[in-house]
Amino acid sequence: MKLYDMELSGNCYKVRLLCAMLGLDYERIPISLKDGEAETEEFLQLNPRAQIPVLEDDGLVIWDSIAILSYLCRKQDSNLLPTAAEPLARVMQWLAVSENEILYGLARARAINKFGRPFHRNSTRVVAIDALKLIDGHLQDREWLATDQLSIADIACYPYVALAHEGDIDISRYPAIQAWIGRIRQQPGYIDMPGMDNTPLI
Amino acid sequence: MKLYDMELSGNCYKVRLLCAMLGLDYERIPISLKDGEAETEEFLQLNPRAQIPVLEDDGLVIWDSIAILSYLCRKQDSNLLPTAAEPLARVMQWLAVSENEILYGLARARAINKFGRPFHRNSTRVVAIDALKLIDGHLQDREWLATDQLSIADIACYPYVALAHEGDIDISRYPAIQAWIGRIRQQPGYIDMPGMDNTPLI
Predict the structure, then answer these.
(1) What is the largest CA-CA distance in chain A?
(2) What are the tens digits of pLDDT across the range A143-199?
(3) Domain for residue B43, yes or no?
(4) How many CB pairs under 8 A join A and B?
(5) What is the value of pTM for the model shown?
(6) How far, in Å, CA of A12 to CA of A7, rounded?
(7) Residue of B nearest to A137 (CA)
(8) Which domain holds residue B36?
């Protein structure tokens, strides 16, 4: 397998984290967004959205992080993506949150600071705080987001929550989130990405 | 089953459309967003995101349209959501597009006009056009978005594309999209929502 990847991308890290937990090997192909490497003719053939991550597996090309996470779980028959109706729906709920409040709030707040992206700071911040309140409230009496065990819902929501401080968003007011981050970091195969050594934990 | 629903919501219509295609009965509970009915204590117990649709099925409460679509397909063992790794990944790719470019582009452009929402018109429009180009390009040599048959990827992407005109976005420059809309409308069980009789088709 080949992963078109950027080290500082939380979306790419989701795939790297799942691969590490599943014990999957792959070749990393670094793509520099700021050098326009996702906008070449060649790359647009792989992903017309001009985004990373992209996974290439034996001729199959799959873009979008939640699609890649789902693909790898089904290919490996992993219970990190359940198959029954209710637990699958619970995972999908939080994948939707990862693509909405987390991406348009937490990830954008970080992208303003880290990559100079031209998003509106205040409205981004409002969405980011909404995301944290939602997740913290949900985790008050739960260990994991979707079911009673780790799933790709946790893997998809985790990176930009654990990098919130890079967007000047403080998670120290959300102890249930901090405890959840701690649990994820204790999972077998867990790997970090840059910036995560500064996540404020309890 | 109970569906907490708003007639003019494209996200709610996705669930109504799938139920119609699967022949499922349910009770509709109308929720008025503008009257704050999604922000009552009682409703927030159902969905802390204060959004519709919400499905209640025999005590289970499921929020978010892509979660509800997935739940109903698995519950009914419908091939509108495939189970194998590759076709599942293809569906997930377009569910992600439905939650990103389509929601933050096409749906927001409509929400500015129709509900007076305070989104930025120009940047919303740019995302909406990106969505249309992506979908139209993909459909150049395909009948359906994800696989060689209709799936919930089509059901999730369809509403705000077919309502683009309500956000002053013209789809008549995208004939592959127009043909795809025509195919969806010919599916057994298909139902419309308000505004769709004005979709410009070939």
Answers:
(1) 49
(2) 999 999 999 999 999 999 999 999 999 999 999 999 999 999 999 999 999 999 999
(3) yes
(4) 93
(5) 0.97
(6) 7
(7) B48
(8) 2-75
